[in-house]
Each structure stands twice: as C-alpha cells, then as structure tokens.
Design a protein that fits this description.
The chain is mainly alpha-helical. It is built from four helices and no strands. It has one domain.
C-alpha cells in the first residue's frame, strides 16, 4: 500500500518531468509561430497540463495517511501520467530534432526548416495533442481523487 510520503515523492518527480516536457512543447510551438491557428488546441492542452501539474504539486502533500484507497488511486493515476509524459517527451524530441539549443543564424535556419516541414509533421502533432489529452485526463482523475 502506498503511503502519502511516497505519493509526494512521486508527484514531485512527475511535476518536474511534466513541466520539462511542457516547456519543450512550448519551445517547439514557438518555432512554428506562423501556425498559430493549427496549434491553438494543442497550446491550450499544454497550458492546462502545466496548471494541473502545479495544482497537484501544491495539494498532494495534504493527502492523509488514513486514506489508503485514495492514496492508491492517486498513485495509479500518477504512474499512468508518468508513462504518458515520457511518451510525450520522446515525441517532442522527435519533432524538435537534435540540438534544440543553437545560436544565431543556425537557430533561424532551423526554425525556418521546422516551418517548412510542418505539413509533414501534422500527423505527429495530432498524436501529440492526443497524448496531451490523455495526460490531462489522468491528472484530472487524480485531482478528483484528491477532491480538488
């Protein structure tokens, strides 16, 4: 049976991973700035993910040791969400390509090439959106269990 302390540790790791992945998604979307209409839904899902992670980070410490069923349910949700976030992280790395941190002209060229390749990445962006939806739904379930 999971105790509240281990849930807090799991939640802290999950929040850290989630915010890192969400930041990578934001960077990728920013590189595709000319595609705002196509990306608006994914941006909203990404923003919701960030906000939900922050709420869980704040409130998971309030889990009481006497609520074993709730603790186990939250742990299951967080484990599932961690799997979703790891899949998202791999997908973002694939979309963004190697060496996301580059300077000057190389950065501009890379940004332009991402814009040009955007139509070919569209199915992957739809996959990214679906994974964001799954992660958000799992986190919403954890929030309901925490009665937030």
């Amino acid at each position: 049976m999971a105790d509240p302390l281990s849930i807090s540790g799991l939640a802290a790791g999950l929040v850290s991973l989630g915010l890192q992945v969400s930041g990578g998604i934001t960077q990728y979307f920013d590189a595709l700035e000319c595609r705002d209409q196509d990306l608006s839904s994914a941006r909203q899902l990404n923003d919701a993910l960030q906000k939900t992670l922050r709420v869980i980070e704040t409130h998971v410490a309030q889990l009481k040791s006497g609520h074993h069923a709730a603790t186990a349910a939250v742990q299951t949700c967080l484990d599932s969400c961690k799997t979703d976030l790891q899949a998202l992280q791999r997908l973002v790395a694939e979309l963004a390509g190697p060496d996301q941190v580059v300077a000057g002209r190389v950065s501009k060229i890379k940004s332009r090439s991402q814009k040009l390749l955007y139509p070919f990445s569209r199915p992957k962006l739809q996959q990214l959106e679906a994974k964001l939806r799954n992660a958000n739904a799992t986190l919403q379930l954890a929030m309901q269990t925490l009665e937030l």
